[in-house]
Amino acid sequence: AGLPSAMMSAMVYPDRKVMAICGDGGFMMNSQEMETAVRLGLNITVLILRDDSYGMIRWKQANMGFADWGLTYGNPDFVKYADSYGAKGHRVESAAHLTELLKHCRDTPGVHLIDCPVDYTENDRILNVQIKELSAAL
Questions:
Q1: Is the C or the N end of the chain the one with fewer CB within 10 Å?
Q2: Which CATH architecture has domain 2-137?
Q3: Which residues have C-beta within 8 Å of that of residue 45, sequence separation ≥ 6?
């Protein structure tokens, strides 16, 4: 619900800076609303954390012993996808570039989409291994 929630926030609070942070799987479930956001002239930024899978579900299920099946997929080119709706698409090239893009999108009116590749392997280690170890030590 990241994109629709951000759209409503932008409509209720038009003077505030609004950002939706979505995984690629969640974004694609209602990505067509980019057209609505552009048509309504909203000022929002959508940051897509792209891992080409249902990453969060994938690593949670792996830690519950479930087989990895049907959780990876191919995505469209999100920059071109945003552009096709009349939004402004951006692709992250480095951590420093992400900072620049966030500032640019914050300061530039319109609908922006940022395609940011992520690797959830660190999340798995921290959230499923280290937290359990730290909790057990308490």
A1: C
A2: 3-Layer(aba) Sandwich (3.40)
A3: 17, 18, 19, 20, 102, 105, 106, 112, 113, 114
